Backbone:
């Protein structure tokens, strides 16, 4: 008897757009009964998230935000409700919960370490030892309005042996752990969760969007070599960086796609809506991406007549802003000691990464290879969603699957808590 397919829902409440995507899967050896594909080698969806099948989608214009900050809970909730309603119509059933992404300048990273004694004589490391050292690592002073969103082990050290990913079963006398915390504003998170609840939805998990993308977009080899993942959103650019396989930096840069649009509006004396269209149609930030001698029409404001502007003049407006963005990224990398350790380079994603020449500018400023990050694999994902602006949303699905796995009845108590701590290994 086949298992009834489960639904998994991801919700990305952005400054300009609210998006919902629904996947379905069976926890057994098949992806789903709707457009899914069975695994020939018995691999389950837990081991291969690409076995999830696309089921539905909803997208509406966001309301209730101001410069990246939640300004009106009722309006934000209404936008969420409309996007959920679209997704429900596409799957033909009700949505009750979702994995919720969160981002913005209130998220930051913090490294810590802790150690415990296993006794005077060597013995095997047990699961409860790992839980205990992780709990000790959590005991760090935080401001009253800050809370730990994610705790990510970088490595365990057993009797000075470094680079251990899972110490259970190994023998030693002293166990240490190096971790990286993702910290967020408790009030900001609660306000967003409240908006989701007002829309009639439960939050299955709250996930840092850049962290979800950092776990889904690079390969393990890229994380081992060192990689920066940058999500170019509207009001800001969210970044995570990995070195030697472990999370080393979480940061928000105060430059996003909205700033490029604003530069065009000011530089060409046109409305922001027209500036956004011009940016997407003709914009580039690096020489060679525009046709020399070509021009485009710029609508005037009010009763002003439209004008023809050389395309190279638009690049001269956008290029300094892109340069500034990657110079800021470079400063943050040097601050955490990763300036010369990005062997795998940088992965650009989010809607802002589609601006022509962004990879070229990143390579020029940071001196490392750059590529565009597309959404991680999901069976049956429509071509319209297979673009950088949906990478964060689909990454939330992948992370949500991990959370769902941790909460299966197969493991409870200490065992389940350990799986949560060691989820970074996958």
Residues:
């Amino acid at each position: 008897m086949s298992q009834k397919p489960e639904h998994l829902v991801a919700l990305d409440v952005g400054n300009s757009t609210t998006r919902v995507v629904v996947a379905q899967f069976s926890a057994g050896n098949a992806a789903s009964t709707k457009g899914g594909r069975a695994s020939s080698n018995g691999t389950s969806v837990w081991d291969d998230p690409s076995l999830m099948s696309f089921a539905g989608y909803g997208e509406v214009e966001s309301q209730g935000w101001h410069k990246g900050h939640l300004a009106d809970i009722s309006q934000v909730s209404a936008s969420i409700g409309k996007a959920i309603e679209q997704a429900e119509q596409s799957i033909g059933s009700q949505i009750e919960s979702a994995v919720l992404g969160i981002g913005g300048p209130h998220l930051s990273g913090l490294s810590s370490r802790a150690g415990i004694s296993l006794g005077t004589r060597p013995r095997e490391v047990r699961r409860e030892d790992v839980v205990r050292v992780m709990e000790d690592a959590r005991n760090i002073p935080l401001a009253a309005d800050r809370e730990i969103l994610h705790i990510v082990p970088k490595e365990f050290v057993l009797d000075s042996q470094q680079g251990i990913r899972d110490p259970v079963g190994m023998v030693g006398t002293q166990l240490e752990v190096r971790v990286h915390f993702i910290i967020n504003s408790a009030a900001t998170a609660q306000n967003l969760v409240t908006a989701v609840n007002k829309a009639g939805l439960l939050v299955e998990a709250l996930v840092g969007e850049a962290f979800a993308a950092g776990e889904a977009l690079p390969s393990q080899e890229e994380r081992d070599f060192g990689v920066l993942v940058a999500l170019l959103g509207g009001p800001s650019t969210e970044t995570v960086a990995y070195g030697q396989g472990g999370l080393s930096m979480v940061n928000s840069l105060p430059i996003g796609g909205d700033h490029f649009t604003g530069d065009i509006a000011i530089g060409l004396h046109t409305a922001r809506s027209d500036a956004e269209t011009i940016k997407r149609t003709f914009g580039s930030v690096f020489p060679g991406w525009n046709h020399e001698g070509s021009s485009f029409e710029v609508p005037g404001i009010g009763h002003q007549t439209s004008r023809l502007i050389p395309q190279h003049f638009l690049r001269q407006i956008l290029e300094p802003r892109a340069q500034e963005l990657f110079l800021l990224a470079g400063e943050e990398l040097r601050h955490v000691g990763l300036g010369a350790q990005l062997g795998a380079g940088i992965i650009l994603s989010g809607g802002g990464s589609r601006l022509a020449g962004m990879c070229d500018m990143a390579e020029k400023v940071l001196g490392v290879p750059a590529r565009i990050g597309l959404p991680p694999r999901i069976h049956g994902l429509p071509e319209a969603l297979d673009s950088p602006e949906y990478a964060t949303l689909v990454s939330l699905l992948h992370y949500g699957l991990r959370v769902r796995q941790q909460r299966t009845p197969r493991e409870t108590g200490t065992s389940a808590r350990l799986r949560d701590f060691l989820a970074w290994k996958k």
Notes: The chain has eleven helices and 20 strands.
